[in-house]
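Sanity check. The docking grid for iron/sulfur cluster depends on where the pocket ends up, so I'm generating a full predicted complex first rather than guessing from homology. Inputs follow.
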Amino acid sequence: MDHLRVISLDRPKVKQMKAILPQRYYDFNTALRQQFGCRVQKITVDAGFSCPNRDGKISSGGCIYCNPQGSGTGAHARGLSVTAQLESGKAALTRRYRAKKFIAYFQAFTNTYAPLDRLQAVYAEALAVPDIVGLSIGTRPDCMDPAVLKLLEAYAREYLVWVEYGLQSAHDRTLNLINRGHDFACFETAVNKTSGRGIHVCAHVILGLPGESRQDMLQTAAILSNLPIDGIKIHLLYVILGTPLAKLYQEGLFQCLDQEVYVDLVCDFIERLPGRMVIQRLTGDPHPSELLAPAWSLQKAQTLSLIHATLEKRNTWQGRLRDGTAVFDSTLGHQVFNALQQGLP
Ligand code: SF4
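Predicted complex below; grid placement will be based on this.
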């Protein structure tokens, strides 16, 4: 640990830091506030897309943990248009968070897996809704063709555009085991083709996948930290009823992480991410009626507060084990970290 230049903070400095720095990582709300100057919330949209890992093109079983509904809200099946979903999300999030701007988040299944004209119609419908300032498009790295990238690049000149690529692990043996249907090289290629166009790239990872050691997971963090990735979602692996993972769990072939182990892992993971990378998520959010295990995954607020408390207790932060310094560059809190590291008052 010596080479990390960890400093011990005296009491006044800790007080000063706590007063200014709300969190020890670069969270999405902060990033959006920096860009838009107000509270911005994502609204989940179900546009009725499918997934090649479910419709038989790649496989029909899907990823072993995947909810057969593909994390969809079912809104499309209920006949709700993209506009109707966004208007109802706006009303709810304005009440709850006093949000003023919104991002249309295409989350269910694979949201670039359709003919270009259909994609264009759906994205354009979302962007025509008042106060929608951007798109966030969840997809697979093997479902991004050049024409779609060009379309998103054009939108990115006027709007905030995120592409969220599912990866889950940087280890091919894990990707095989969980039936992702693509390898790490495919993800890397998609990231490299997407970056440099004004489009923000987010990677999804899961901690606690079958067969993965702590070392494996932290290697994923280190590998991702060297790619042009702007954001990350860290998920807890939980078991949804009716999935192949549920069968493994019920047969005793797979165990879920304990909450304490997960919290420590998340802290270890974000210590290895660059400070510029926006952390969009730190745990999972299962639906109670679909969850098999672990029960603690329903206590999202408690898990988040344990992560925050552990970062404080360890006196650590995002990026500390990547380059030894806090590299957030646009908030006062980050400057305080840098000043403290240099022993300045
Ligand atoms: S790629 Fe996504 S929607 Fe498709 S099977 Fe995997 S988790 Fe489910």
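Relevant for the grid: Confidence is low (pLDDT under 50) at residues 1-21, 327-345.
Also worth noting: The radius of gyration is 20 Å.
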